[in-house]
């Protein structure tokens, strides 16, 4: 923040800043100042240090700070935008100059990855602690703390997929909480005058990426695009949606225990959905059930 973000306002370096980066500090750094502020207050650190003599109390620190740690979600949601901007401007003289002054071996992007790495590291540490504390005092709280951190990571992961949805007319933020997302084989069976569709439906499934919100189920098609020689970035082009208030569900489909049905409007439209495993199917069914009830 001092060696790069502040330097963007340094009048001596202004002429080195590439035009694509003008007024884009918030995109490049996201809410890094907020994350810095949280840790700089050292409340969390002090709470953790107080557990050195009583490690069984550690879990409480995480449970107590659950809300605070959600600032990482915001950071991770912005990360794809930040990376795209970095790919555009990362090799500019401005960044080279900042790096030289700091005498850093690594360039800025390595540091911008740190918050993402940190939020995924906490759960590994909690898992290790659980291994060492079977059936002792504080085990239940450790399990709860681990679940809390895994929940944050799941939200981070889900929201990073969600920002790649294209072609949806409405605002996804109005669809309620994003509960699940993932890829499935889907067959359709429509009653109304689409006999052709029905015949085709028996054979080749469509690959669809589903996003389950409290108010809506979105069906998207995953597209992978190569971004100028870099790793593939996925985007999800919107195909159709079902209002959760109008759908029904059939948990078992004859002949395949990985399939379930979602139907619409009294079985006028039926979607047969095949998960990659029975466990995954059951997780989705239980989430859908919660929404429907």
From TrEMBL:
GO MF: guanyl-nucleotide exchange factor activity
One GO cellular component term noted in the UniProt record for this chain: cytoplasm
PROSITE patterns for this protein: DH_1 (PS00741), DH_2 (PS50010), PH_DOMAIN (PS50003)
Single GO biological process annotation from the record: intracellular signal transduction
Domain PH residue range list: 171-293
SUPFAM superfamilies per UniProt: DBL homology domain (DH-domain) (SSF48065), PH domain-like (SSF50729)
UniProt superkingdom: Eukaryota
Domain DH: 1-159
Signal peptide: none
UniProtKB keywords: Guanine-nucleotide releasing factor, Phosphoprotein
The protein's name: Guanine nucleotide exchange factor DBS
Organism in which the protein naturally occurs: Tauraco erythrolophus
């Amino acid at each position: 923040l001092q060696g790069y973000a502040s330097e963007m306002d340094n009048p001596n370096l202004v002429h080195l800043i590439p035009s694509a980066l003008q007024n884009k500090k918030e995109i490049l750094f996201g809410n890094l100042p907020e994350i810095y502020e949280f840790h700089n207050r050292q409340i969390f650190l002090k709470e953790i240090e107080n557990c050195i003599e009583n490690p069984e109390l550690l879990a409480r620190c995480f449970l107590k700070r659950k809300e605070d740690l959600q600032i990482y979600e915001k950071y991770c949601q912005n990360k794809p935008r930040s990376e795209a901007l970095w790919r555009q401007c990362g090799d500019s003289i401005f960044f080279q100059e900042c790096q030289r002054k700091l005498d850093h071996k690594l360039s800025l992007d390595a540091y911008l990855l740190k918050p993402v790495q940190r939020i995924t590291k906490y759960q590994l540490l909690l898992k290790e602690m659980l291994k060492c504390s079977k059936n002792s005092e504080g085990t239940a709280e450790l399990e709860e703390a681990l679940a809390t951190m895994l929940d944050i990571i799941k939200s981070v992961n889900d929201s990073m997929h969600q920002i790649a949805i294209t072609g949806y007319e409405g605002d996804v933020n109005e669809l309620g909480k994003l509960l699940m997302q993932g890829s499935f084989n889907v067959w359709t069976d429509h009653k109304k005058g689409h006999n052709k569709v029905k015949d085709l439906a028996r054979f080749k499934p469509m690959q669809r990426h589903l996003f389950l919100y409290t108010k809506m189920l979105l069906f998207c098609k995953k597209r992978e695009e190569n971004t100028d020689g870099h790793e593939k970035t996925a985007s999800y082009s919107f195909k159709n949606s079902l209002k959760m208030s109008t759908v029904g569900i059939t948990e078992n489909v004859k002949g395949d225990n990985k399939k379930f049905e979602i139907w619409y409007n009294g079985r006028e439209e039926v979607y047969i959905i095949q998960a990659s495993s029975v466990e995954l199917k059951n997780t989705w069914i239980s989430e859908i059930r919660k929404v429907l009830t």
